[in-house]
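Can you give me the bound-state structure? Components:
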Amino acid sequence: MTQIFGNLLSNYEDVVAVLLFSIGFCVLLFSRNLIKKVVGLDIMDTGVFLLLASRGYIAGRHVPIIVDGITTAEYYINPIPAGLVLTGIVVSVSVSALMLSLTVRIYRTYHTLDVDALYMMMAVNKGGKP
Amino acid sequence: MRDKPILDPEFSSIWTLWKNGQIDLTTPLRSAGHQDPKSVREVEKYRPRRSREAYSQYVRRSTKLYKIAATCLCLIFITVMLLTVANLPPYGDPNAPTVNEVSERYLEEGTDETGAVNTVAGMILDYRAFDTLGESFVLFTSVCAVAILMNLSGKRQHIKHTKELINYADDMIVRGVCRFLIPVILIFGIYILLNGHLSPGGGFSGGAVLGAGLIIYAMVWGEEQASRIFPAKTVRLVVFCSLVFYCLAKSYSFYTGANHLPSAIPMGIPGHILSGGLIMPLNVAVGFVVCFTMYSFYMFFRRGRL
Amino acid sequence: MSFVQNFPFFSIILSLLCTVVSFILNGKWARRLTLFLLCAGTALQTCTLLFCCRGNIRYTYMMGHFAAPWGNELSIGILEASLALLFGVVMLLSVLGGSEHVATDVALPKQHLYWLMVDLTYVSLLLLCYTNDIFTGYVFIEISTIAACSLLAAKEVGRALIASVRYMIFALIGSGLFLIGVILTYSITGELLFPQLRTAVTALWEAGTYRFSMTVAIGLMTVGLSIKSGLFPFHFWLPDAHGQATAATSGILSGVIIKGYIVLLIKIIYQVVGIDIFRASGIQNILLIFGVGGMVVCSISAIGAPRLKTMVAFSSAAQVGYIFMGLGLGTHSALLAVLFQIFAHALTKPMLFLSSSSLMDASGGRQDFRSLWGAGHRYPMAGFTFTVGALSMVGIPLLAGFIPKLYFALAAFGMGWRTWVVLLALTVSTILNVMYFLYTTILIWLPGEERTHVHERVRPRMGTVCPAMLLAGLNLLVGIHSAALAALFTQGIDLFCQ
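Here's the bound-state model for the whole set.
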């Protein structure tokens, strides 16, 4: 048990990333407003990128841009997670844009942003359970 | 945590009208954009199986059930993730499993094999270039998706949907500052683009800065003026040419690599601006795509078309 | 290295180029370009499949000048090529059959964007079959999600927008969980390509280090992909999304897109984690239980569905339950049954959706079962293809749907408590399938013109009917020549699971 607490304290960046992801996940599940759901999705993705980026850090080393001709691998941090985070951020921007355009379109058609009202409309019109 | 349904006071809300019994939700709900009567295929008239009170009771019960299930799910998920994080390699550890021969080669031989001083740029545009190709297509997909959803067609093109809360055209301070600021932003963006293989930067960050410059221009000088300088045809042509160039250049690289043929692209001297083989032209292509994607998002959301 | 080995790479690049070219074309030419792409892609995959069969090989294709683990790779073999060929053929026939509905359901200035999304779906499916790298798989999963949502939301009439919001929320939760699984796997092993991941995971599991986070990582990847394919407790987005879309989109979503995620899951189970570690981690039993639950619960929901297309969509969720039950059994014979189920369902479901749309047209645009009374007499060809599809779903011999059920039953023997669970689930779900599919089939063929006010016969449209007939023919072919297919799959599985 104390070992788990010790590990959590030393991996504090990952703990913060997991907490961010959980906050975003809760907002996504519990809020009824569509725009709040999109914000929750964004916070979730931020948590994921923090988790990935923190996996590349090595204490006491420098940014992976070759300076002064030093090409030994022990001088720099790991460049792979940085590249993966770049891809992830672009993907996150794309899906946020798509979700927001869906929200605007739904508002123009149905004049409400409440997901419960939307599912209700769908259920009543189907003549069956939602 | 009970938030009320969001109702706009200006537009009549279908939810309130239905609750007050003023409309019957069994009439087909037609979309705002497409008015073609031939397309109303699914004329569905149903009698609701239960009464309105039974429906609202059902909705209240299922909402309570959903909230309980979601709370349990969130608590279990947070606990599991915290225990997992406690079981990962320590933060900042030089003996972590991720520090292996892969990152070693990227750092030690990256500059010789790719020609880029920035090893992250060398990795994403040379070693693992296929992921970046996919990523550019994710951005392209989303701009096409926003075009499908937001692009107004036909009669609705000339109707303004947003109220003009703030008009920057008469604001002297904003205009004056932007007259100085926008060229600086654009030059900074071009610098980030071209220097992607020598310093932190690259196509994505440079394109985002350029896109921000274009968006400020469209905001301050008006969307009509911006669409006169960047008409829809130009934007589509530039995005098309950049993506086609990216595909063809990278497929040449993939084909020669897979068939073990030598590549005819010169590597240049590391540290000079014209070096790194295909990395700089690819950065420029990606930068154009990202810049016009950001600008298109703004224009689609603002006025429904480019 | 022979020239044929480049063909999968050529089909991927051709799809990407067709996508970009569709951006500047108009609707008519974009549709022709999509049809050309699907035909060319099918031809290329056929050549690849013949090459792999003849040489009995499974090879890797370097994407760039650097070998794994420093560069990206594709892995091409019999199973991957046959699945890619299936996806291409099914997409081609769905698109051909649904073109007329697309012309009326999607606004004219946006039709070229619809066909662009079809091209993107094709490229992401090709890549999910052929990829050898887990992060490339994630990027193309995202392309597939965005493209599927646009295909769904392009329909201007009906409740497709609300269905697409629900679909996007579930799909993005699935993608987020999958990405966390990938990140955890990378932090523990330091590798991203499948062969290197396999060696690292096996070594770590035997040493016993990081076992908890490894189990959580595998679990998160499995849950993420299960949410996206519509496994039982996460299937709530599926009936609305597949039931509200236009006919071509429903066929593509139900027939191929959810199968693409399942193919990636199969590759992760067999080539990243290894079936022994997957069994030892306990996730396999959970998949079995959820699959069985899906088979029963979704069939019960299909019985209660008030509309035809929603019923067909619920039956999709039930058939996905079969696939996960097979993955939960974990033997090579169960994997053979899973492959047959993927083939049978991909060939049957688009045919059901196309004929449902035609039957709806013959009933005045209505989908409730009262209006469908006697619809088969008003549109006999659509009624015939619907009947073939329904019989295949139920599992009548001579049709493709019978083969996977037979192989599932054969694979279940000798597995302890799982034998009883699987056999009982197969029996119960077959009875439930009969209840709703045969009921509907009998309903559309009953002569009852006085019950509805729609009397006239609909003139059959060749463009919609011929692809459905072709799918019915393929269904019959697979059902009759299943032994040859079984030999092909067994050869492929041996190469795949080394």
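A couple of observations. The mean pLDDT of chain C is 92. DSSP finds 20 helices and two strands in chain C.
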